[in-house]
């Protein structure tokens, strides 16, 4: 996914692609370290890798989640400025400024995770076989996490996409003829792709965050009332969201589909060449004395 996105960012350069690369990196973080440890815990029916590994896994899990949230927010603001404030876009989103904004997103992501170590909210949860954020560690901190890491970004992204939709509808109805050239078909397709990414993110993460708000009211009373199956389903549905973005890119974006086909063709031809090479390799001579 990251190689695909990086390839697109160079072949079809647009400063908005930098945010997409950053989002792809956030999605891949959990695949390289936390998810293999989750599988290990499932196969061994428990966590046996030590406290340090648990903290690192929980930290990277949070890095992926919060990084995805902040990058989706950054993408929405970028698309909003590109479509609704196109005259100022080039000045605001120069390549240097875009890199600085992405660096700021990841700096804020790390700062948002650090309080977990002081609150002690990163621990192993046997219900989901993961070292992750514990909603019952602190009711006030859980409420802050839900508000800052979910509700506020959702509100910002919703505002940006609503403004874009209003402009698109106005252009389609030719209400403002001078703005007709501001929304090109390719821009509209890219906007629809990222809008679907946002909608799926909100759907996948809403149940777990709503559970967090309920638990934050009174952890000792409310946490036991949450059915275990509901928490497990909402948890895995939330983290499954990281797998959906690549599918959405492939379904809705023509350029991504071309890159998918090119990568798959390259992998197929490489595998076929390797197989043919093994088959054509001459067998070693047989020693009659043996």
From TrEMBL:
PANTHER family: B2 BRADYKININ RECEPTOR/ANGIOTENSIN II RECEPTOR (PTHR24228), MELATONIN RECEPTOR TYPE 1B (PTHR24228:SF54). It is a multi-pass membrane protein. It comes from the Eukaryota. GO terms for biological process: rhythmic process. It comes from Cirrhinus mrigala. InterPro entries: GPCR_Rhodpsn, GPCR_Rhodpsn_7TM, Melatonin_rcpt. The chain crosses the membrane at residues 56-77, 98-119, 139-169, 190-217, 229-252. Residues 1-249 form the G-protein coupled receptors family 1 profile domain. High affinity receptor for melatonin. The activity of this receptor is mediated by pertussis toxin sensitive G proteins that inhibits adenylate cyclase activity. It is found in: Cell membrane. Keywords: Biological rhythms, Cell membrane, Disulfide bond, G-protein coupled receptor, Membrane, Receptor, Transducer, Transmembrane, Transmembrane helix. Gene3D superfamilies: Rhodopsin 7-helix transmembrane proteins. One of its GO terms (molecular function) is G protein-coupled receptor activity. One of its GO terms (cellular component) is plasma membrane. This is G-protein coupled receptors family 1 profile domain-containing protein. Belongs to the G-protein coupled receptor 1 family.
